[in-house]
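Weekly structure sync, notes
Attendees: PL (lead), two postdocs, one rotation student
Agenda item 3: pending single-chain targets
PL asked that the sequence for the first pending target be pasted directly into the notes so everyone works from the same version. It is reproduced below exactly as submitted, 318 residues in total.
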Amino acid sequence: MSNSKEIRSRIKSINNTGKITRAMEMVSAAKMRKSTERVLQIREYAHAAWSVLTNLARAFENYEYGLLAVREVRSVLVVVITSNRGLCGSFNAQIMKKVKEEIEHPEKLKINRIGTKKIDSPVADKDLKIDFITVGRKGEGLVSKLGKEIIAAFPELTYLPGIDEVRPLSQIVIDEYLDKKYDKVVIAYTDYVSTMTQEPRIRQILPISKIDLEKQIAEMDNIAKKSGIVKPRMEYKVEPSPKTVLKHVFPRLIEMQLYHAILESNASKESARMMAMKSATDAAKEMSEELTLAYNQIRQMKITQEIAEISAGRAALE
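Predicted structure, written out during the meeting:
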């Protein structure tokens, strides 16, 4: 058994660690409140933007041009959103696990859609080209370990970015797709459900698929679906021309998808970090209590031993 001096030193060290994790928990809680407020504010706008995008995609279903062009999938661009730092539980590990599963089993990545029809790629899994854009330093390091090429990195978009800061990212995504360097673009992010729950997701953003958009809208707001209400089909009058709409409106809506995913991931990250620091603080408190009990037991044993020795010495003198 350790002596009392060693135990006292460990108690002091653990208490100091507990103070640090408690401070980090409080900082993360403050950041989480700001992050969740921002993501809840943007959800209504994102919902409306995706509804517009869904109806436009339906209206232009037979108009294969630009961002609506559907090709056989031979190359895929993955935008993966992680954090810059650790100490946030399994936040980064979960999203990267999902990405790794998709890379190892790319059956879904190789599918493109035209309306309700699927286009399967004839390319073998090993010949499918998968490149990355990373948001966050952790993702950059993890993707490098997978041996995949990173065409761009955005380490500074991980905490409450503005829409203008996301525009360079969306421009790269759109340009790469329009230049036919990639036949499909997906985004890997973490969806904020609650403080205790965050769900890693992979979404297709290009080519624009109304099925994927409708699924995304249903996950955000499934009240109409549960009640059996069928929303009326929107009929759009396009002016001045479909090409103008594709050129100006669609890029802004793609930008909104990326912006919303970053905010969702940011809220998830701060929630995961707050919970991780709370667990660390609780664990430090439990360890400190256990060591304090052991320290008191050793002290009690020494006191009892000293009393016994004094009593024995007195008895010998008598």
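Discussion points:
- The helical segments are 4-59, 91-104, 137-145, 163-178, 210-220, 223-227, 242-317.
- DSSP finds seven helices and seven strands in the chain.
Action: rotation student to compare against the earlier draft before next sync.
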